[in-house]
Hints:
By secondary structure, the chain is α+β, with helices and mostly antiparallel strands. The protein is built from two helices and five strands. A five-stranded antiparallel β-sheet has the order 4-3-2-1-5.
Amino acid sequence: MAKFYLGDVVRMRKPHPCGENRWEVLRTGMDFRIRCLGCGRMVMMPRWRFERDVREIIERPMEEDGLAPAAPGERGTNR
Length: 79
């Protein structure tokens, strides 16, 4: 199961009626709030449906700033 963070840009299984399939994650928890990057429409959906419909994480802004948690194999050797 993938972890999702605020600000992630994800590609969904089906495109939005405006033609865009990229969405920004605005809220996480039991429900997810996402915003279409084409028209700006916001949608809320339950976690199980969001996780089923996401195909890939396109962009994760927190990784660029070094704020995302390290993956299990990427921890430093300093103790």
